[in-house]
Specification:
This protein is an alpha/beta fold. 23% of the residues lie in helices and 25% in strands. The radius of gyration is 16 Å and the shape is globular.
Amino acid sequence: MMMCSSTGVILLLASTEDLASKAQQQALLDRGGWDPIAPPEEGTEAWANGRVHLWLVREGFLQLDDIDERWAAGGAPPASELIFLSRHAAASGKPCLTVHPRGGPSLRASADTLVRGGGRGGMLPPPSRRLAALYRELYAMKKADALPTGFDVSLEATHHGPVVRTPACFLEI
């Protein structure tokens, strides 16, 4: 079992299966300061900007249990924190930037629910230490009218996987 360390890298994860995730990944790379690094798995890409690493994976996030262990098993430095760059979907259809922890809080979650949303019923892995700061920054941007027109911000409840041992959160558009 991998133990997380506050001295590890901050690992941002992007997915080729998620257009919003890819857009966030590209926006980060476009800001500059990123150097390509050897990815921990064949067929993936990775970059580093100081202590922050960015890994582009092929799979969708919800079923990526133990992705933190896969990162380290591939020879990458251990991650102290994971931030999943992802797409947000709401029943309202309203554009929103949101942040949330991950996990499956219900002990009675149906097998179908877990297949769709990943995770394990009753398992709430540790949240990212940056969760509140990310939300406060989004909220401050909203108050300052610094977001695209029509976008709202939200701090969502835990509602899906993947299961990881490293503190993590989702940052969604």
